[in-house]
Design goal:
Largest sheet: 9 strands, mixed
CATH superfamily of the largest domain: Alanine racemase
Helix content: 25-40%
Oligomer: single chain
Strand content: 15-25%
Strand order of the largest sheet: 16-15-17-14-13-36-18-27-35
Radius of gyration: 28 Å
Number of strands: 36
Distance between the termini: 19 Å
Shape: globular
Number of helices: 27
CATH architecture of the largest domain: Alpha-Beta Barrel
CATH topology of the largest domain: TIM Barrel
Length: 764
């Protein structure tokens, strides 16, 4: 986003007070994330306060990267030579005020889109249909939050004649601020789903809140599938198109699933209102990639697959993401251009040059040596037509057709759900033991550190050492340290859990030999789990040793709940909470310094939030799994395990399938062979119809026994071809359902997915 405001005009726009420092000649660039700052003139940094991080803590980092003007809401500021500070009451509100100020400069139509689902699809398809007749600026990806909308509006410029802006809300009263900024002239309401009304008292309240976006529009286009009163229709000048009105147009649609038809109907109807409907464009509507996908590449590289489109706004967003992910590592950008895009090559090069990658390759058939790939962050950009997705996947470290994709945005959402149940001061420790439940130790830990998690928890010292070597800097608690691992804990600043006097004695001896003192430890109490931990009668001796030995200090005291998911009978858990609280109070009276108290796990947060103390530990809950129905509704699924059909065969009556001939066909059947087996974590107990997969949204049972590397399923009733996608865990078959069929729990499913299964990560 590039602005051209004088310093005084900027201060007026954000209602800011110039504290000290010289006035900048002009304000052009807005920054709020130090990881995405790259050399540009006339930048200003907004110190935003988030759920986990406070932008004021990163002012010095922004200064080191060349920023000299800062918008702040805290009086205590670092002393930085030639830095200029502007004070506002709330930095986010100031940024929104700036967006309002900027919005008022433009008189062309602005389309405001809101709804529970489909906002981004409608926006992108409307852009696709109208792009030949209008010069359009639109929200990048899913920028529809209180911050995202402000940033989107700051991209408005005079060389356009139409804007399309998304607006998303999660709590009451949020839409008022978004409407004030967007001031849409045309509205689109995609849907209002009961599944998205967690923070609203009723469906009606949720609907009314969304409709607040349209109070001043000329017309609002409504999606099908939900009811709205005639009075409400009149209040927002609503028009609800029907499939019958656009039968001819919808027949051209390349996707015929219900969601695609609903989104296309809104885009087509809106384009007609704008007199910009190009029927020929409907047949080429793209299947959208809503998230950036990253995966492990050859030579320890990280590949960012963003091959959906190549417009300049999307390109800049991808380059910022690469910059944030790289954190100083080598960056390679690969761009594939179809002939119809070659006229934009100079503009694309200029955009990329601003980010100064180490290597830029323009080619539909790039040749990158493994030596160049080593430790690099590689962005592959292009269009579907350029077949760049195939190029991106050619860099994979593993070429197994079966892969599991982890949605990092869902993890962030789930952590926010837990965070919203806690007091603002309560810290979160994220458990990343067992390779982050099989998801990937370093990848998930790095992501968690990036979003501002306070602590990480691992089982053994080796895991903590791996994290330190990968660059993780936040505190790490080692739950089960062994004597052999104490030296590594000390060397790499890991905080060991101490649960016995002998163990403490071994640690102190190691600290003395290494000439270390004041080393942080966490005392584990056994309050009823009957696993590791100190008994109440051992505590006087424990405190006597700690007070006598300057080598150690208590950083934390914790225990583990044994029955936190039991909502019917809470007596045992309440007794654990009482014992823990009393013991912590006793310890606090004995030591002259504060320490962190932590007791609750994921289920504990859901059911006993009154016992959150100073920190909570979130594990399986991060991945969208909870036995609490109310909480489960608010969590998002993280795991998408999929494969594809390798071969299709027809078998006759009496023919058998797989080992031991446990399945004999009673009729002519069509079968599909899929490259996943018990060596991948698809357990043999799912044999003979006990388990299955989904193909084209249809359940296909396992025929015969699960093999080491393959399964065979019944596809007799389906029209399928080799290469069709197979869902193992996803929208149709949740991890809970899959685990139940395996007669186990989601923990075991996650940690059992083999290392040979390719792992990818998606993020909005």
């Amino acid at each position: 986003m590039k602005l051209n405001l004088t310093f005084d005009e900027f201060c007026l726009a954000i209602n800011g007070q110039h504290l000290h420092g010289s006035k900048a000649e002009i304000i052009q660039q807005i920054q709020f994330d130090t990881r995405k700052i790259y050399p540009l003139p006339n930048q200003v940094f907004f110190a935003l306060k988030g759920a986990y991080r406070d932008g004021h803590d990163f002012i010095s980092d922004a200064y080191k990267k060349g920023v000299r003007t800062f918008v702040v809401s805290e009086p205590k500021l670092p002393e930085l030579r030639d830095a200029t500070f502007i004070f506002v009451k709330d930095t986010l509100h100031a940024l929104q005020d700036l967006a309002c100020y900027h919005r008022k400069k433009f008189t062309y139509p602005i389309i405001g889109i809101t709804g529970s689902v489909g906002k981004t699809t409608v926006k992108e398809w409307l852009f696709h249909i109208l792009s030949d007749k209008y010069r359009i600026v639109r929200s990048p990806k899913s920028f529809n939050s209180q911050l995202g909308v402000a940033l989107s509006l700051l991209n408005l410029h005079e060389d356009c004649d139409l804007a399309i802006i998304e607006a998303g809300i999660s709590k009451p009263s949020e839409m008022e601020a978004l409407e004030r900024m967007i001031q849409p002239t045309i509205g689109i309401l995609t849907s209002v789903s009961k599944a998205h009304e967690d923070n609203f008292s009723s469906y009606e309240v949720h609907l009314k809140e969304k409709m607040a976006l349209f109070k001043n529009v000329k017309t609002t286009v409504l999606g099908t599938g939900f009811l709205i009163s005639q009075e409400q229709m009149r209040s927002i000048k609503a028009y609800q198109p029907t499939v019958g009105e656009f039968t001819k147009e919808l027949q051209l649609l390349p996707f015929q699933d219900r969601g695609s038809v609903a989104s296309a109907l809104l885009a087509i109807a809106t384009a007609k209102i704008l007199k910009g409907l190009d029927i020929q464009k409907i047949a080429s509507l793209p299947r959208l990639a809503m998230r950036l996908e990253t995966f492990e590449g050859r030579e320890n590289s990280i590949i960012i697959n963003d091959t959906y489109n190549l417009d300049l706004d999307a390109l800049k967003l991808s380059l910022e993401y690469q910059l944030a992910l790289a954190d100083g590592k080598k960056r390679i950008v690969i761009v594939g251009l179809e002939e119809e895009w070659t006229h934009l090559e100079d503009k694309i090069r200029l955009t990329i040059d601003d980010f100064k990658p180490d290597l830029l390759v323009f080619s539909r058939k790039p040749k990158i040596a493994d030596a160049e790939l080593k430790d690099a962050i590689v962005l592959v950009k292009g269009t579907r037509g350029a077949k760049m997705e195939k190029i991106a996947r050619s860099f994979k470290s593993k070429q197994h057709k079966t892969e599991v994709i982890y949605n990092l945005s869902a993890i962030k959402h789930n952590l926010s759900v837990f965070k919203n149940q806690l007091q603002a001061k309560t810290k979160i420790l994220a458990m990343v033991k067992a390779q982050s439940y099989g998801v990937g130790l370093e990848k998930i830990a790095s992501f968690l550190e990036k979003i501002g998690i306070s602590y990480l928890g691992v089982a053994y010292s080796d895991e903590g050492v791996e994290l330190r070597k990968s660059g993780i800097k936040i505190p790490i608690l080692v739950m089960n340290p062994e004597e052999e691992g104490f030296e590594a804990c000390i060397k790499h600043n890991l905080e060991p859990a101490i649960y016995s006097l002998n163990q403490l004695d071994d640690l102190i001896s190691t600290l003395i030999s290494m000439e270390k003192s004041n080393f942080p430890i966490h005392i584990k109490l056994d309050t009823g789990m009957r696993r590791l931990g100190f008994e109440r009668e051992e505590l006087p001796k424990l405190l006597e040793i700690i007070q006598a030995q300057p080598e150690v200090r208590i950083a934390g005291v914790y225990s583990h709940l044994a029955d936190a998911d039991n909502r019917r009978d809470k007596r045992f858990t309440q007794s654990q909470i009482t014992r823990f609280q009393e013991t912590c109070s006793w310890i606090s009276n004995k030591v002259p310094y504060p320490f962190i108290r932590h007791l609750l796990n994921s289920e504990g947060i859901a059911n006993y939030h009154e016992a959150e103390f100073d920190m909570v530990r979130v594990g399986i809950g991060m991945y969208g799994i909870s036995s609490n129905p109310s909480l489960q509704k608010r969590l998002q699924a993280v795991i998408n395990w999929k494969s594809e059909i390798s071969q299709i065969k027809t078998i006759q009556v009496g023919e058998s399938v797989s080992y031991s001939r446990t399945f004999i066909a009673k009729e002519k059947m069509k079968i599909a062979i899929i490259p996943v087996g018990y060596a991948d974590g698809f357990r043999r107990s799912l044999s003979n119809g006990k388990g299955g997969v989904f193909i084209k949204n249809n359940f296909c049972p396992i025929l015969g026994k699960v093999c080491m590397d393959m399964i065979i399923v019944d596809v007799s009733k389906l029209n399928v071809t080799e290469g069709d996608e197979v869902e193992i865990i996803g929208e149709n078959q949740t991890i809970e359902t899959f685990a139940k069929a395996m007669e186990t729990i989601p923990y075991e499913v996650m940690t059992s997915i083999s290392k040979r299964v390719h792992r990818a990560y998606s993020e909005e």
